[in-house]
Amino acid sequence: MANRSLVSRGYPVGRLRNEVDRVFGDFLGERPRLGARLGLRERSFPAVNVWEDEEKLQAEAEVPGLKMDDLELLVKGNELTIKGERKDVGVTYHRRERGTGSFCGVVRLPADVDADKVEARLENGVLTIILPKASSARPRKIEVKALSA
User: Fold this and answer.
1) Which residue, of 2, 41, 54, 71, has the greatest Cβ tally within 10 A?
2) Around Cβ 126, how many Cβ atoms within 10 Å?
3) If you ran DSSP here, which 8-state letter would residue 51 be given?
4) Taking Cα atoms as reference points, which of 114, 104, 98 lies closest to residue 84?
5) Residue 143 half-sphere exposure, CB side, CA atoms within 13 Å?
6) CB of 68 closer than 8 Å to CB of 122
């Protein structure tokens, strides 16, 4: 009981607890996000996974509801830029977790890629991008020569 009165009076422990509750509430989706509380339009960059093997890098981005015409991909050196736009369909939302509007993000890749050989496909809301590594970024076997004495 004593704790509650301290919390309600705004003592430091109570303020800290309120702040922690607010942050975790935002993180867990239990409260509107900060941008929404401030009246800002939310622009969400899609979730992206990137992995590699010896020959290529591969990226997958979650872009549900988008078509290839809604997306633009740019590759330069070791950077992949993903641009797109989720159009507002003009309905009244009762719950809205997926933002609308333009998004643009740069994904730094762990190696340079051969931009002329990059391929992309969109299937079931997942954008898959195959990025062959530039020859300078691929591992090369070096022959060790014995010195003659």
Assistant:
1) 71
2) 14
3) E
4) 104
5) 3
6) yes
- Say if CB 101 and CB 123 are below 8 A apart: no
Q: How far apart are the first and last CA of the chain?
A: 88
Enumerate residues 6+ apart whose C-beta is below 8 A from 46: 61, 62, 63, 82, 84, 103, 105, 127
Predicted pLDDT of residue 82: 95
Domain boundaries along the sequence of the chain: 2-31, 48-136
CA distance linking residue 132 with residue 149, whole number of Å: 43
Give the model's confidence band at 55: pLDDT under 50 very low, under 70 low, under 90 confident, else very high: very high
CA distances from 81 to 45, 71, 99, 119 (A): 11, 10, 19, 14
Residue 148's alpha-carbon distances to 50, 141, 145, in angstroms, are 46, 22, 9
> Which CATH number is correct for 48-136, 3.40.50.2300, 3.40.1060.10, 3.30.470.30, 2.60.40.790?
2.60.40.790
The residues with which 50 forms a beta bridge, in sequence order, are 59
Residue 107, SS3 per DSSP: strand
How far apart, in whole angstroms, are the C-alpha atoms of residue 103 and residue 13?
A: 39
